[in-house]
Amino acid sequence: MHQKLTVTVNGTDHELEIDTRITLATLVREHLGLTGTHVGCRTGNCGACTVRLDGATVKSCCVLALEVDGHRVETVESLRDGDDLHPVQQAFADAQALQCGFCTAGMVMSAVALLDGTPDPTEDEVRRGLAGNLCRCTGYTAILDAVAAAARDRRVPQ
């Protein structure tokens, strides 16, 4: 069964007719071509598919696409400004916090949401903010360093 869906993704309005069984992850990856959002576990455990829905992070593999009808979705692609990386993306690159890269988009989306709400987080707050995201390469130290650096960089006037 198919149904119409209207959604704003990364600032662009889309009107689509979709299979009612697909997830938000499938919508952004396969129907909109935004492949930065990765699908790892399909159960909401790994966080690779983390996106923002109306400003809140969600595991897009666990959200039916129809649930976002009339809402606003932001994927990792929304963070970049032309050739310029978002400060969190740049901090991940600088800290070498992207070993295989599979978890990176979800980690970055969770880190951006954390820093938007808690601009000067403690290490424990960073750990809690990223708790729903798993890194199979065990790059957690570099990831924590990257989020701390991004927080510091946001506080320093440019």
Provide structural commentary.
This protein has 158 residues and is an alpha+beta fold. The chain has five helices and five strands. A five-stranded mixed beta sheet has the order 2-1-5-3-4, sandwiched between helices. A hairpin with a 2-residue loop joins strand 1 and strand 2. The longest helix has 16 residues, at 140-155. Pfam families: Fer2, Fer2_2.
- From the 3D structure, determine the CATH topology of the largest domain: Ubiquitin-like (UB roll)
Shape: globular
| Total of DSSP H or I helical runs spanning 4+ residues | 5
- Helix percent reads 25-40%
CATH-scheme architecture of the largest domain: Roll
Strand content: 15-25%
Low-confidence stretches: none
Tell me, rounded to a whole number, the average pLDDT.
Answer: 95
* CATH homology superfamily name of the largest domain: Beta-grasp domain
Domain count: the total is 2
Main pleated-sheet profile:
5 strands, mixed
CATH class of the largest domain reads Alpha Beta
* Rg: 16 Å
Number of strands: 5
Topology pattern, helix = H, strand = E: EEHEEEHHHH
